[in-house]
Amino acid sequence: MYPGLYHLAVTSPVGAEATALLPRVETMIAVFYFGLFAASFDFISGYTGYLSFGHATFYGAGAYLVVLAANGKLPLPYDTPFMLLIVLAGLLAVVLALVIGAVSFRLSGVYFAMITLGFSQVIYVFVRDWDFVSSSPRDGAAVVGPGGGEIPVFNVGVPGVDALNLAIGQLTGDTVEGLFGLLSLSAVGYDTFRYKLAAFAISGFFAGVAGALFAGFRRSVAPDNSLFFLVSGDALLASIIGGFGTLAGPIYGRLFDETVREFLSKEGAGGGLLPYLRGRLSEGTLATELFNGLTVREAIATFLNGHASLYLGLLFVAFVLFVPRGLLGTLRDRVGDTLAAAVSKRLR
Amino acid sequence: MSLAVPLVAFLDALGQFLRPSTLAEVILNGLSKAALYAMIAGGLTLIFGLMGVLNFAHGSLTMFGAYLGGLVLVLAVGQATGPLARVAYFFVAVVVVFGALAGLGGALEVGLIRPLYDRPPIYQILLTFGVTLVLDEAARIVVSFYGLQPISDWQAALGTKPGPLSASYEFAGVSVSGLALFEILVGAATVAAVWGFLTRTRYGLVVRAGSEDSEMTEALGIDVRRVFTTVFALGAGIAGVAGLLLAWDPVWGASVPLASETLLPAFVVVIIGGLGTFRGTVYAALLVGLVDASMTWWFVNAVDFSGLPQMTIFLILVLVLVVKPQGLFGVAEVGGH
After folding, report:
1. pLDDT digits over B282-324, tens only?
2. N or C end of chain A: which has fewer CB within 10 A?
3. How many domains does the structure of chain A reveal?
């Protein structure tokens, strides 16, 4: 649905503004697969309060599985259907989550965050320097097909990712609330370890799936964009802005995040503020000196161009301080129910 | 046969490694690394011990210190400046960096972290993580505005290092670089200063009392909030000075990614030592430094895997957390474990 709407908006009379403001279709796909990852991160971190700072491991494992399988480096036919690879990526992440979780859930609080971070950095460093992955493992691996063979094609589109998001959306409600209700039972002496571990495995599964989608869409993977601990940080950012402890929140958070990033992106990366301003402002305005020889053009280039992280970081800090429940969480507080339920009630 | 070849190679390498001159070199390198780790992690552990705040912005403060100190040195040192004067300027830079970073740290604590003390500890992690994003991007903007590459080391700052520190010296077949000796000296001096502050001054006593039981300390009529601010400022200042020292070390160098490069080892050292014990942090820095140096030797001479030192360090972290979660010297209650 989005590609059509986007095309309509861009060709409309406010086309220039729409190009500047709306994320491109490719970005929208990225929002969905990363949103899925962020949701899986929030599933464990937001609901249970066990901050899984090594969550990028599961995302990266899924991504590497797809690329390695497509390059014929795994004991699988290199043209294994993508849907099967997605499931395998999820299962690999489940195995990792069970191993890491079995050790890590003996700890809590800061220590849990640190041990998961420790595990993920061990794996990150290992993969970064493992020459089995590709000839220059630090730069990652691309889908090139097995030695001279045909290069597999993956069909990743908005519909596919969207369906998966719906699937994880189904997990909300009673199932999840019930599962985490059990966690509070540890206070009265029940053994909640198994439930925590199960939640961690579910969360890992979807992170692995998200990683597989990421690799399938990008057709390459690098240690720094999949396994590095700052990737978990990006998921954290999306979760906080969207709503910590809500499943759909992180997806909206990521949408917001990507939109701001693209709006302030470097030149040549689609729409955004910069080409818009360059096109609209007159040469006189652009060359005006602000102070000390700094022209408006240079000021834009210096303070806006590609520096979305600064503004997102400020926003993130503001959210932690003033809107701890995030966008979706605050909205839900306002209407007193999940949005879908509130809307359907109002319509009835 | 196929097994015997790597075994022979391994024993051969082990024989080389255990030669006294090699061992002495590795230990000296290890001590210099340990000095750096102790400086990077020292501020973090003070802050955590007193306030229970795991400061994710610590690496960014180190990176700020590296750039600011580098700036002082680049402005002060010319081609003709002699080695002694350069070292003197280094200590001028220490004062400037410590003051500036302590000010920044104090402001962060008062403005941003203070409102969060009554929230769950996870929010302090989240907040300082956001601060990191802002500080790193701000540094990137400023650095690239002055035409430097944010991701590569600042060569001009490296260039202000006096000649004798770049040279390497030989005693009885053991060669060691001047920089390593300098790092050991500065690191030992910092550790001694913090140690003296904690154990020999009245304010240090208050800090230790606050780490032990902040409510009780408050009940005795001490304004713990002010102590929090001071310690946060102190921790940030130490982080900055560590950064300044790194700006002279070609292995690290002043760059924006220095923030995350130093944050992770700092976490590792603090956790291994036990969150909140300064003594534990110093011992953990020694352990990690020596392991790092040994593994670097193995990587250079025997094992073809460049990630070996880093991976071993993180493995130690995981191992310590599994076996003794409160760290080697930690007390179980600290940190709400």
Report:
1. 999 999 999 988 888 888 777 777 778 888 888 888 888 888 8
2. C
3. 1
User: Which backbone phi and psi does A244 adopt, to 5 degrees?
Assistant: -70, 130
Q: What is the mean pLDDT of chain B?
A: 85
Which ipTM did the prediction report?
0.81
Which helix H or strand E contains A75, and what residues bound it? none
Which of A53, A100, A121, A303 is best to mutate for the B interface (most B CBs within 10 A)?
A121
Position B251 in a domain: yes
Chain A hits for B138, CB-CB cut-off 8 Å, are 310
Whether B288 is in a domain gets the answer no
Closest residue, chain B, to A123 (C-alpha): B311
* B35 located within any domain: no
| Better-scored residue on pLDDT, A334 or A320 | A320
In a domain, A342, yes or no: no
Give residue B161's domain range: 42-265
**Which residue, among B264, B263, B282, B265, has the nearest Cα to B273 in the 3D structure?**
B282
Q: Give the nearest partner residue to A312 out of B133, B141, B264, using CB atoms.
A: B133
Residue A174 scores a pLDDT above 60: no
A188 within some domain: yes
- Cite the DSSP H helix spans in chain B: 4-17, 20-51, 58-76, 83-108, 122-145, 155-159, 163-166, 178-200, 202-212, 214-219, 224-247, 258-273, 278-301, 308-323
Residues A283-292: contacts with CB under 8 Å, at least 24 apart: none
Q: Which whole number is the average pLDDT over A88-92? A: 92
Q: What residues in A contact B132, CB-CB < 8 Å?
A: 313
Token couple for B30: 């290890």
Number of separate domains in chain B: 1
Interchain CB contact of A122 with B (< 8 Å): yes
Sign of the dihedral defined by the CA atoms of residues A270, A274, A278, A282, in that order? positive
- On the question of pLDDT at A79 being above 80, the answer is no
Judge whether B145 is closer than 8 Å to chain A, CB to CB. Answer: yes
